[in-house]
Amino acid sequence: MLLNLLVQQPQMLGRIIENTPYWVWALLAGLLWLGGSQLLARNVSLVRAMVMPVAMTGLSVYGIASAFGGAGQALLPVAAWLVAAVFIASVALWLQPAAPQGTLYESKSRCFYIPGSAMPLALILGIFLTKYLVGVELALQPALARDSGFALQIAALYGVFNGLFAARALRLWKLVQRSAPLATSPATA
Question: How many distinct helices (H) and strands (E) make up the chain?
């Protein structure tokens, strides 16, 4: 619907942007900064490396709940999101089991050296744009909140983004596990 509306009445884009709350643009700026910072190689603490996938998961679940929870149908979309996320993470780990070449983990400082990548920026923007466009669609057509097919498609899309984030985090976690000292058994007398 949104695409048809913008093709037939392109002036609506200006009205949509005008009616977008200012905090949405502030959030977008923050997410662009966060994603843009990942374009460059950097040192990142273990905690910080794990926080972003969790935060993006939270944003996705919030997107599903806020779009479809009011219509009483958040459970099935959340299940679809989870299935899609697990499936995509599994496939991504199967296709690329190790962290990108050049990624290092220093166990003493508990920090990663991560080469720059555009993937986090793309995933962050994908989640943001999905949330934004779904919000616009629901504002234009509130009945879509009760459309289970629409809800499942959106939930699966969020799941794809989160599955890719999860695979990235799991690759980093494998580096942590490999660098952990092996437990030794006490000497027997």
Answer: 7, 3
